[in-house]
């Protein structure tokens, strides 16, 4: 990205609307304002007037706002033109700005410039996109807290604690010929252990935030005609899947998303798991296995008239993954709707066709996600945040091992690595490739 380039883009939604906004940022904003407005607007005041093209013809009438550097979103001179939200009008305004030297902005380029100019850190920049993409009130509230710096403040405090501890450890190396062994006093161990616990706390909140942002992936599995499609329809309250008495109706993967207490729940209905010679069914079963392996939670549906669920139909390698046994069609037996336990596994007895026990299932899924009703303490996080926090914790854990071995130099290196891992969360340490990947997912005008 060339920071000297002036960029422009539509900052409002595509399509027709009452108001459309064109945003311009960069060193050429003042000259563009002179030509398109006929004057340089007073800073941070709304000016109503005409918008002109390069040849002086009037394009539209609207409100112009000028934010001189560094007191703007990007930290550069910024001009916003708020006109009538017609497609043609917005196109003409963009063309006028580009004819005067601006270029079309890349996705997320305004936010990227804000980050590079020190107006916000990387977590806050990502929170801008998360607020726009928020699918629930709870996720929007958590994104706003990240934008306000709550997530960054916690990470920065830990980073500073690691730096201070590393300085202390390196000082003991420089004065290793002294008779006093500062590392053997126990204080260093206590501080490292506390940092490790604090990282785990942030990691736990971030993992919950990742679920809130991306949703909990729930795969519905079972034999043909166990009622999987009926369960999908009962959860979504929409007849998404075809339900018949004929076994094997579902041959492909069906996906629907609902919300439970603000948490997106991505429900995946899969083909019935059984041995089949039909090539279409075989492909459906192959896809079912992939979805089950990727899922966060598996609902193994079986007929209440069967003696027990057949766990052998599931793919191997699901150790540690939550599997809920769904005893369906209890309307055909004497079983009551409720929760029980079978070989230490949770079993829910319900009737998907009549939507009995569905609220109980939703409650159990909410408990697995570990979310609360308010979202307090949850940090809306991305996968890269979690990877960085996990790496930082591993380095801190390694530092504790090196402390027991009295390896001062290795302790200092582990603490340095942990600080760098945390720094990658806020963007203190980041590569150009990482920045490109992050901001390319943003809206054009953000």
Key terms for this structure?
446 residues; alpha/beta; seven-stranded mixed β-sheet; six-stranded mixed β-sheet; 43% helix; flat
Question: What does this protein look like?
Answer:
The chain is α/β, with parallel strands linked by helices. It has helices at 29-37, 87-99, 109-116, 122-133, 137-147, 150-174, 187-214, 228-236, 279-294, 358-369, 383-404, 408-426, 432-439; strands at residues 7-10, 17-25, 47-52, 58-67, 78-85, 103-104, 216-222, 254-260, 263-269, 297-303, 323-328, 338-342, 345-349. The strands form two sheets. The protein has a seven-stranded mixed β-sheet, sandwiched between helices. A six-stranded mixed β-sheet has the order 3-4-5-2-1-6, with helices on one face.
The Rg value, from CA coordinates, equals: 28 Å
Helix and strand composition category = alpha/beta
Low-pLDDT windows of residues: none
Strand order of the largest sheet: 8-9-7-10-11-13-12
Largest sheet: 7 strands, mixed
Summarize the amount of helix as a percent range. 40-55%
Q: How would you spell out the order of helices and strands?
A: EEHEEEHEHHHHHEHEEHEEEEHHHH
Principal-axis shape equals flat
Distance between the termini: 15 Å
Strand content: 15-25%
């Amino acid at each position: 990205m060339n920071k000297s380039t002036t960029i422009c883009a539509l900052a409002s939604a595509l399509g027709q609307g009452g108001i459309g906004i064109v945003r311009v940022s960069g060193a050429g904003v003042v000259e563009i304002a002179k030509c398109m407005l006929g004057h340089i607007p007073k800073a941070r005041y709304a000016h109503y007037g005409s918008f002109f093209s390069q040849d002086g013809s009037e394009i539209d009438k609207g409100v112009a706002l000028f934010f001189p550097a560094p007191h703007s979103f990007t930290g550069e001179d910024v001009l916003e033109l708020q006109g009538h939200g017609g497609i043609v009008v917005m196109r003409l305004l963009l063309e006028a700005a580009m004819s005067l030297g601006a270029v079309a902005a890349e996705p997320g380029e305004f936010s990227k410039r804000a980050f590079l100019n020190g107006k916000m850190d990387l977590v806050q920049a990502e929170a801008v996109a998360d607020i726009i993409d928020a699918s629930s009130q709870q996720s929007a509230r958590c994104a706003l807290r990240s934008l306000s710096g709550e997530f960054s403040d916690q990470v920065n405090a830990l980073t500073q604690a690691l730096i201070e501890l590393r300085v202390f450890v390196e000082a003991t190396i420089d004065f290793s010929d002294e008779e006093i062994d500062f590392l053997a006093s126990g204080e260093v161990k206590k501080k490292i252990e506390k940092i490790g616990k604090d990282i785990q706390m942030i990691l736990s909140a971030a993992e919950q935030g990742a679920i809130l942002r991306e949703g909990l992936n729930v795969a519905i599995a079972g034999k043909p005609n166990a009622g999987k499609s009926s369960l999908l329809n009962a959860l979504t309250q929409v007849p998404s899947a075809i339900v018949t008495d004929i076994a094997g109706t579902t041959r492909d993967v069906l996906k629907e998303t609902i919300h439970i207490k603000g948490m997106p729940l991505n429900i995946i209905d899969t083909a019935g798991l059984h041995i089949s010679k039909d090539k279409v069914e075989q492909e459906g079963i192959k896809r079912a296995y992939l979805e089950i392996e990727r899922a966060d939670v598996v609902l193994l549906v079986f007929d209440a008239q069967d003696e027990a669920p057949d766990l052998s139909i599931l793919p191997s390698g699901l150790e540690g993954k939550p599997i809920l046994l769904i005893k369906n069609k209890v309307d055909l037996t004497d079983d009551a709707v409720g929760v029980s336990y079978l070989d230490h596994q949770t079993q829910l007895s319900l009737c998907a066709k009549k939507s009995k026990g569905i609220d109980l299932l939703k409650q159990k899924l909410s408990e697995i996600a570990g979310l609360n009703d308010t979202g307090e303490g949850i940090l809306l996080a991305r996968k890269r945040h979690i990877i960085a926090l996990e790496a930082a914790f591993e380095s801190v854990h390694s530092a504790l091992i090196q402390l027991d071995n009295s390896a001062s130099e290795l302790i200092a290196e582990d603490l340095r690595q942990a600080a760098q891992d945390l720094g990658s969360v806020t963007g203190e340490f980041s590569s150009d490739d990482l920045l490109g990947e992050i901001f390319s997912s943003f809206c054009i005008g953000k």
